[in-house]
Amino acid sequence: MSDADLKGLFLKHASTLRSYLSRRVRDPQLAADLVQESFLRLAEQTRKERIDNSPGYLYRTARNLLVDHVRQEHRRKTDSVPHEALADIEDELAGLEAQAMAEQQRAALREALAELPERTREIFRLNRIEGMTHAEVARHLQISDSSVQKHLSKALAYVMQRLQTPPARPADE
């Protein structure tokens, strides 16, 4: 089939074929794409062998392409979920991730505190966890206020340094 013959077929049948497909898919862009693909397949096929009924071939090809498209869309189709539901899931996952990270940080803090000398650990616990003032801790443990400050300073420096650098793993892990 020559280019002139193909052009003549296109001018004669493209509009009707597009209308035929548009009625079935209700999407003019998809219909136009299917028409174009039908003509491309006709052009490829006529190079291989002679086609006796070119309009019939075009309509059959367009119909088959439409069926294939519908089948593919059906396979791809998923149930629609409102955006709000997806946001809730995302927020829940972010919350779970934040909880897991917080738990890891608490475990690292407990581990770092366990490595402190007993007196320093006790002073840290009373001040930072129990909420006692320096003076109250000093009275409770019967030590000076400056001693409380020195122990807290050591504890805070050690804990901060320890939380910023993870512990070294044993060689056999």
Automatic annotation (TrEMBL):
Highest taxon above the source species:
Bacteria
Pfam families associated with the record: Sigma70_r2, Sigma70_r4_2
> Which keywords has UniProt assigned to this entry?
Sigma factor, Transcription, Transcription regulation
Q: Which GO terms describe its biological process?
A: DNA-templated transcription initiation
What the record says about family reads: Belongs to the sigma-70 factor family. ECF subfamily.
Supply the name of the protein: Sigma-70 family RNA polymerase sigma factor
Give every RNA polymerase sigma factor 70 region 4 type domain span. 107-157
- Whether Transcription regulation counts among this entry's keywords is yes
Look up keyword rRNA processing and say if it applies.
no
Q: Where is the RNA polymerase sigma-70 region domain?
A: 9-75
Tell me, what is one Gene Ontology molecular-function annotation carried by this entry?
sigma factor activity
